[in-house]
Amino acid sequence: MDANKLLADRTRKVQFSGIRKFFGMAAKMKDPCDLSIGQPDYDAPEPVKLAAIEAIKAGKNRYTLSAGMPELCQRIAADLKAAYGRELSVMITAGVSGGLTLSLLAVLNPGDEVVFLDPYFVSYLQLVTMFGAKPVPVPSYPDFRFNARAVEAAITPRTKALLINTPGNPTGRVMSEEEVRAAAEIAKRHGLLLIADEIYDKLCYDGVNPCPMRHAPENTLLLRGFGKTYGITGWRMGYAAGPETIVGEMTKFQQYTFVCAPSFAQAAAMTALDTDVSQFQRDYAKKRDLVCSLLEPCFAFQRPSGGFYVFPKVPARFANASEFAEKTAEQGVLVIPGGIFSSCDTHFRISYATTDAMIRRGCEVLCRLARG
């Protein structure tokens, strides 16, 4: 049997994640300085871990409803109503990636288009392609702002969705209230679904993260998660909130794909919602300040306001970010070249979700290479 002849055409269009390549490299290196991994270095709060353990012991190991545990959905819906004054449909997803997958599955036909900014989180391009639709990245260099005029110019009769990510990965940029309002107005004007990926919404350092739910609730699908905030990325916990029709169809597709989010993690999420994690936010604000102070003498970059990434420009003496990342790897430091997130390979992503000592060690090598 020639297995290659059995593969669907989509397998040739969808690429392996370039980020995962660096996970593999780190596993093979001796004492690497890993500034590539996009997950918090802190552990889950003790009450959240204990809640998960107790849930397992109490037998909460079976399927839940596909939409999620009713009490968890109701709690999230109540919190969102208090914040935005709207009754929203809520479902629990297998992480924000699960929510992205289900939302695109629910709205995209082959040939439809999805608009988002470049640079972008790697899944956006690949998921849209996976469903036979066309990704339409809109360049946002050099400042990574949401340029409403450029975005609107990219919209065609085939456009179904506008996807925004704030705080952003890989840039760490938090959209302003004006930018979010502009995105909401575009979605309303063109009848689009505005998918708001807010996985890092609790990790903002210079103010709150604006949400389009305030401006276009009928058009907005909000995707948030527990993994980055509570240090439980492996539990695959997120939620989607928005129009009943969209969330209902996502729930239908969840029945035949993920089935439900992990039951013990849903039970523990109830405790997570009542757990104060503001210290994590304060600690990461300090890490942001540290990495920026160390990089400023040698690199040009936009100061991040959220998440745990900074996206500096590669020094001019290097051909591109891929070459620079290869040189840093030779020195034991792993960063992600920007071409993985973009049509341009001019920047590189640093994750400062690590110890201060590791940040100092890595930035010393990066600056030494930049100086030549």
Task: Describe the protein.
It is a single chain. The protein has 372 residues and is an alpha/beta fold. It folds into two domains: 3-44 and 277-371, Aspartate Aminotransferase, domain 1, CATH 3.90.1150; 62-272, 3-Layer(aba) Sandwich (Aspartate Aminotransferase, domain 2), CATH 3.40.640.10. It contains 14 helices and twelve strands. It has a seven-stranded mixed sheet, sandwiched between helices. The chain has a three-stranded antiparallel sheet with strand order 9-12-11. A two-stranded parallel sheet has the order 1-10. Helix 3 (46-57) packs antiparallel against helix 11 (263-272). It is globular, with a radius of gyration of 21 Å. The protein starts with 9 loop residues before the first helix and ends with a helix. The mean pLDDT is 95.
